[in-house]
Amino acid sequence: MTGKVTIIFNDDGCDSYTLGGTEIALDNSVKGTVSDVEAALVEEGYKVSALPLAPGKDDSLGSFVAGLKASAGSMVFNLCEGAFGKSSLEMHIAALLELYGVRFTGSGPLALGLSLDKGLTKDILSGSGITTPQYAVMNEIPASLRKNLKFPLIVKPLREDASIGIDSGAVVKTLKELKKRVEFILDKYRQPAIVEEYVDGREFNIAVMGNGSSVRALPPSEIEFVDYPEGVPRICCYEAKWVEQSPFYNKTVPRCPADIPEGLRAELQSVAVRAYNAIGCRDYARVDVRVGQDGNIKVLEVNPNPDISADAGFARAGKASGFAYPRLISEIVKTAAERCALEDKRDKEAAQC
After folding, report:
1. Rounded distance, CA 276 to CA 280, Å?
2. Fewer CB within 10 A of the end CB, N or C, for the chain?
3. Residue 86: other Cβ atoms inside 10 A
4. Residue 104 has what DSSP assignment?
5. Distances (CA, A) of 147 to 120, 134, 323
6. Is residue 66 within 8 Å of 46, Cβ to Cβ?
7. Which of 221, 223, 235, 246 has its CA nearest to residue 156?
8. At how many degrees (to 10) do helices 325-352 and 29-43 cross?
9. How far apart are CA 211 and CA 327, in angstroms?
10. Pairing of strands 297-303, 284-292
């Protein structure tokens, strides 16, 4: 399959991170992903253009919409992880595409919005019979520990992604530490904190692709925590993901496919597909889980807009399934196109009733 593809992305510039008192400029990971996806699609025979949504420019939204209209007939590859520096606006871009009748890859606005709110995600997972760590959403500093929680706990911003707000201090072991960390989240990120059971165990990411009866989970990937300092919680914090100068950066090593028994592999994939469907994901997504010392699988998060750069976990899972990177990206476009065609057919049939 070939055709026209327009890649849209939020060009918010480069982030920075303060490490040991020094401010470090980070690479623009979104632009790197755009370059990888564009090269992959060109290799697969598509005609590709890129359309950024950048803040700080006159009528940038109007220009973005004009670009969408000009790309009529293209499949839009949606790489927008937010807009104008706000991850909370991620769902609004998908809603905008739907309002203009644009065909696009990935999940719709509802799934994107639900998944960005970790509390709502866990509510849905729990209601669907999918095990997730015990949790509580806190809008203020707690006076005591809630009955469903026990230490150690991990404290995160309720509505952020990419491990923003998660560092080695995110795991707390006392009420005093909990109060301090919740206060930190409330003050710094201006949003509630989600406090959940810290699962001391193995961490896995499972890539999922498809729609309806064709949904399938790719081989699980394990995040191995190598040579972590004694007493430091084994979590995939922001530094471990994005800050190359951090001592944690090279200590979270992905292994795909994970070296696990066939029974555990099948169970991880089954849980991932159930979580994917529960949140209403489309085309592709990633599910993050932990397996505790008791062997129980607990879903941490569902990411319907995961990193799909050539060196990211999704690409590794694709390779383990026999998909070279260009074919994997082409498969996402094909999956979205088939879904859109089916939706168009259903709409026409409904209009005739």
Report:
1. 6
2. C
3. 12
4. B
5. 20, 10, 47
6. no
7. 235
8. 80
9. 18
10. antiparallel
Q: What is the pLDDT of residues 317-327, one digit of tens each?
A: 999 999 999 99
Distance CA 66, CA 60 (A): 10
* Residue whose entry in the numeric block shows the structure tokens 């165990």: 201
pTM: 0.92
Cα-to-chain-centroid distance, residue 82: 12
Task: Say how far apart CA 209 and CA 320 lie, in whole Å.
Answer: 14
CB 80 within 8 A of CB 93: yes
Residue type, position 8, single letter:
I
CA distances from 117 to 53, 193, 239 (A): 23, 11, 22
What whole-number distance in Å separates Cα of residue 55 and Cα of residue 85?
8
Could you write out the DSSP letters of every residue in 240-257? Answer: HHH-TTSTTGGGEEEESS
Residue 255 · residue 317 · CB < 8 Å: no
Record the tokens describing residue 219, joined without a space. Answer: 């081989």
Rounded Cα distance between 115 and 194, Å, is: 13
